[in-house]
Amino acid sequence: MTSTARRKLAAPTLAMLPRISDSLSFLYVEAVRIVQDDTGVCAQVESARGTDRVYLPTAALACILLGPGTSITQPAMATIARHGTSLVCVGAGGVRSYAGIMPASLTTAWLEKQVRAWANDESRLQVATRMYEARFGAAPPGASLAQLRGMEGQRVKALYRLLATKHGIKRFKRNYDPEAWDDQDPVNKALSGANSCMYGVVHAAVLALGCSPALGFIHSGTQMAFVYDVADLYKARITIPLAFSLHASTDPEREARRRLREDFRAFKLMPQIVADIQALIDPSADRPASAERGSDLVHLWDPHAGALPAGVNYGSDAFDFSLE
pTM value? Predict the structure, then answer.
């Protein structure tokens, strides 16, 4: 097979791309070099035996978490972008910065719905209320955002106490200090590690729908605000119990990542995340299977006529642009 043919096989088409809800959750890598060769994207590791290569299933991944010591080439990043896979840079101890890759084939349908809901105080509070109810059940009628925050805080503290008692932990306090990471207890390390992975996967789902990670309904002031909003839906059910179960682990961060991947499969969280985001933003909207990836649909906006077809010359002989 020629090198040109191999490159064509490695290049994705829209028909080849899986829906984000069908994707594997995440892949964590560290101390490797990620490159593109004639057949795909691979992670290279130098050893005494030479260079070992492991090919990455980029088209089937929701996101790739780049841990400490990882480098990546531009051709590899371009391939990952074409596959619609998100990249998230994760530092030691779960300290993370985000790197978002937005597939060019996405429509703006869900972004527009998100902006409309976010820009109005009343609809924004309605979304925040739906987020609370998705976690803890019905909220009191007319509850303000401050009241919802207070009730959420009480629920989470009660959950901490319950899990600490269950696992025989005499005292637990949520503590996240990147400057003193090695001094943290196993539960805090596992919780930070699991949450970091959860943020990466939710971020991938947000991008795959074409939504903005920055327009949060509860969180604000950060480019990850909406990611934090959505990730909070699953902490009480997934990451918090997982972290407490690792209270005696000697490597809680690594074990948390491994167990979280298993939970994503067991709870079928990828399709759940996509459906939850859509239901939060617009509960009344139809959600066809094709809505996640979208297509190359482009239209023109008109305040009176609505969406108009693009690629059409709307010039008319009735207009005269001469400069006589």
Answer: 0.68
